[in-house]
Specification:
alpha/beta; Aspartate Aminotransferase, domain 1; Aspartate Aminotransferase, domain 2; seven-stranded mixed sheet; three-stranded antiparallel sheet; 12 helices; globular; binds pyridoxal-5'-phosphate
Length: about 400
């Protein structure tokens, strides 16, 4: 038997550490006894909705982001829908939407009767290609939506300049970007509205949950009303006689429960630690994977762009793209969970393909990232040993 190479030794050592810890899922909610106790406290009391925990969660979120207003909702999709409702988007209005996103980004426009005008991604970050925005503007355009793809902030100064010039609203989909900052300001506060998600794999979770932040008093007031049927008085401080209210606008029931908010309050206390672990994990992967010729990594934090490190996204080059499934299965067989962001550009999903008639060639960058990328985990459920193991296993997939 010959001696193991340094790389094989590294794999063996890292594997031992991981075998002790079990599989490494892409995401895992970080719930402790504190979250469990907080939910139990709610369940022992009479207030399950419209209560103090939602207010406490909103305050903690506002303090962390620096937002003048934070309004908790049932999901990020609800927050996005409310954003367009509060800004008065109407049938036939157009919104510039990144092709590379979760379908919720586009559905929110459609739910208001609006029409998406999809714009391709730029290759370095996967964010909307700002150079393509202006040529997509028509007399019907009312808003630009950006997504901070995988936690990497969009160049908001450039987007806001274009929006101002053409008198457009700016909506920031921050579902993957809690903790991301641009020029020191938290994302979500550059445009008119920012929307966050607390789905289990996100930076913090409340099971399902969302948050709207805004600097605009009018948008905050409309969002708060429209998340509760458009009722003109909130139940905590303004409805002294139960049942006495009027309805001045359309609305939905997009409220967050007290149980969810109780989890959110505890998660906010731990957010700083979660973000630190994500950053450390990301850096170990970046350093370790740098020498693999056949992959590119989407650009991360630099200068004024501070990422929230949602995951570590590698993009296989043309010679390796066809092996993506095999590589993902190889990682899975060694206990490493992965994901894909996103399986197809939104306009290539059946519903949008049928209703908008686009072809793959219309979004070459988004199509390539969808077809060739693998999202590796960096969440705070994993540590440095886990990252070194992932590096070793990914390297195994690309023989020298
Ligand atoms: C960019 C983006 N926007 C919106 C959403 C929808 O979030 P939610 O599940 O909270 O509605 C997601 C979900 O992952 C997302 O990735």
């Amino acid at each position: 038997m010959g001696q193991d190479s340094p790389r094989q030794q590294l794999i063996a050592t890292a594997r031992e550490a991981v075998v002790e810890r079990g599989v490494l899922p892409f995401g895992r909610p970080m719930l402790s006894d504190r979250e469990r106790a907080a939910v139990m406290q709610v369940l022992h009391g009479p207030i399950l909705t419209h209560g103090p925990r939602v207010q406490a969660f909103e305050s903690a979120f506002a303090a962390f982001t620096g937002a003048p207003h934070a309004i908790a909702t049932s999901t990020c999709t609800a927050s996005l829908h409310l954003a367009y409702m509060s800004l008065g988007l109407a049938a036939g209005d157009e919104v510039i939407v990144p092709a590379m996103s979760h379908v919720a980004t586009a559905h929110a426009v459609e739910l208001c009767g609006g029409r998406c005008v999809f714009v391709d991604a730029e290759p370095l970050t996967g964010n909307i290609d700002i150079d393509l925005i202006e040529r997509s503007i028509t007399p019907r355009t009312r808003a630009v939506c950006v997504v901070h793809f995988l936690g990497m902030p969009v160049d908001m100064a450039r987007v806001c300049r274009i929006a101002e010039k053409h008198d457009l609203f700016v909506i920031e989909d921050c579902a993957l970007a809690l903790g991301a900052r641009y020029r020191g300001d938290h994302v979500g506060l550059w445009g008119d509205v920012g929307c966050f998600s607390f789905y289990p794999a996100k930076h913090i979770t409340t099971g399902e949950g969302g948050m709207t932040i805004t600097r605009r008093d009018d948008v905050a007031e409309m969002t708060a009303r429209q998340r509760a049927f458009g009722i003109d008085r909130n139940i905590i401080s303004e409805r002294t006689i139960p049942g006495e209210y009027d309805v001045e606008s359309l609305g939905a029931n997009y409220r967050m429960t007290e149980m969810a908010a109780a989890i959110g309050v505890e998660q906010m206390r731990r957010l700083g630690g979660f973000l630190q672990q994500r950053r450390e994990n990301y850096e170990i992967l970046s350093e370790g994977l740098r020498e693999i010729q056949e992959i590119e990594t989407l650009t991360s934090s630099h200068g004024p762009f501070e990422s929230a490190y949602y995951c570590h996204c590698i993009v296989l080059d043309g010679s390796q793209q066809w092996r993506r499934r095999e590589i993902i299965e190889g990682l899975r067989s060694r206990g490493i969970g992965t994901s894909i962001y996103y399986p197809q550009p939104i306009p290539m999903l059946s519903w949008y393909r049928q209703n908008y008639g686009h072809r793959d060639e219309d979004f070459p960058v988004a199509s390539r990232v969808s077809a060739a990328s693998i999202a590796l985990p960096v969440g705070p459920h994993l540590n440095g040993d886990d990252m070194r193991y992932i590096v070793a296993v990914v390297k195994e997939a690309f023989p020298e």
